[in-house]
Design brief:
Layout: H1 3-26, H2 29-35, H3 40-48, H4 50-68, H5 72-91, H6 97-125, H7 127-130, H8 133-158, H9 161-177, H10 198-201, H11 204-233, H12 238-257, H13 259-266, H14 268-288, H15 292-298, H16 302-319, H17 326-337, H18 339-356, H19 358-365, H20 367-383
Helix pairs in contact: 1-6, 1-8, 1-9, 3-6, 3-18, 4-6, 4-17, 4-18, 5-6, 5-9, 6-17, 8-12, 11-14, 11-16, 11-17, 11-18, 11-19, 11-20, 12-15, 12-16, 13-14, 14-16, 14-19, 14-20, 18-19
Length: 387
């Protein structure tokens, strides 16, 4: 087995195990808060607190990676912070709003930064792995699919407080696993300054891509919050929510594995536009779904929406980023298109649900997709894309 193929196999296993692990910190956060007695509006406020961390932490993490020419060490330090936050979150079993605001914010926000950092690491190991990002990320989907029923079983058997303990143990194994993976390959240039990050937003191509994905992720974030709110309003329990997460992860696999072929055949811009259109269709169908199980069925459109928008985002952002700011380019973009939706979506959705109902809210959320499509017009003009 060649060195690259051996490393690729390790990365497949790494993503599988890592995503099994991180389901414990994110997949059950909303149902835990509901069990504690928080209302939809209170849950929205608590979950929106993740945005502050999700906006600030990726900028800092990306800067540290580029400045010190390492992703692996920063990644491991980030995981330790995530472990502490998640453990305290699930150990706070009383309805203590202030504590839950702090640790929901930290656990939820650092989770998003952790995922972005892991993807950034893989993209920077070498071109061989960058072109195989889709298949590597597919094993993350398998891990998520396996982790959700395991987490549901832990809750049923031992309660939510055990999730933090299990997550801690598995995270220690993840850190040990990283010793088998090479660090990112960094351009050996002068150490960057924090002010160098302004170069990213001076680039119109980069700015437009980030804005396009901002509105795409307003929909994606609403799927993880508003759709689950509707499921619970219709009587779904933790088991069905976990089933939905697992089914969605399973549905992602074909297009993740086909990611390299799709990029070569259609190009990342076309994939992103098609994925956006399918997100619009998905939310309209969710608005009309009459039962929790029908929402699970509609959620199988995840098979199209998430893989192709995820894969295309990495290549579009990478291409628009200067070579000496590759880590910052990915993580700063994540702070905008993951952090801002995390801040706004729970508040907007919670307010809209209380005013116009959950179904009309889902219809309104689909409008974000049209904004992304409109923003594609100036981007295409800049790139002189051939259609």
């Amino acid at each position: 087995m060649t060195s690259n193929k051996k490393t690729l196999f390790i990365l497949y296993t790494f993503y599988l195990f890592t995503f099994i692990t991180i389901t414990f910190t994110n997949a059950f956060m909303q149902t835990f808060l509901q069990q504690l007695g928080y209302t939809a509006m209170e849950r929205g406020i608590l979950l929106s607190g993740t945005a502050v961390v999700a906006i600030i932490s990726p900028i800092i993490i990306g800067y540290l990676c580029d400045r010190f020419k390492t992703v692996k060490k920063v990644y491991n330090g980030l995981l330790i912070l995530l472990v502490i936050s998640t453990y305290v979150f699930y150990q706070t079993t009383g309805k203590v709003f202030f504590l839950h605001l702090i640790f929901t914010s930290l656990a939820g926000g650092l989770f998003k930064t952790f995922c972005a950092t892991q993807d950034t690491w893989i993209l920077e190991i070498g071109d061989y792995f960058k072109t195989r990002y889709g298949s590597i990320r597919a094993f993350g989907a398998i891990g998520w699919m396996l982790g959700c029923p395991i987490g549901s079983w832990v809750i049923a058997k031992y309660g939510y407080s055990m999730l933090g303990t299990v997550f801690t143990v598995l995270s220690i194994l993840v850190i040990l696993f990283t010793s088998f993976i090479p660090d990112a390959t960094k351009q050996q240039s002068e150490k960057i300054k924090f002010s160098d990050l302004t170069q990213l937003f001076a680039n119109k191509e980069y700015l437009l891509i980030v804005l396009i994905y901002l509105f795409i992720n307003m929909m994606s974030t609403a799927d993880a919050i508003t759709v689950i709110d509707k499921m619970m309003m219709l009587g779904a329990d933790e088991s069905l929510v976990a089933t939905r997460w697992s089914a969605m992860a399973f549905s992602e696999l074909p297009l993740f594995f086909a990611g390299s072929f799709l990029l070569r055949r259609f190009g990342d811009l076309r994939l992103m536009i098609f994925g956006t259109i399918m997100y619009i269709v998905r939310f309209i169908l969710c608005a009309f779904a009459p039962t929790p199980m029908m929402l699970v069925v509609v959620s199988m459109l995840q098979s199209i929406t998430f893989p192709i928008t995820m894969i295309s985002s990495k290549t579009l952002i990478d291409r628009a980023t200067p070579s000496h700011l590759k880590s910052s380019g990915q993580t700063v973009a994540s702070s905008v298109y993951a952090g801002i939706p995390a801040l706004l979506t729970p508040i907007i959705s919670g307010f809209l649900i209380s005013v116009v109902g959950v179904n009309n809210t889902l219809m309104l959320i689909s409008m974000y997709g049209f904004v992304s499509l409109i923003l594609c017009i100036p981007y295409i003009k800049i790139k002189n894309s051939v259609w």
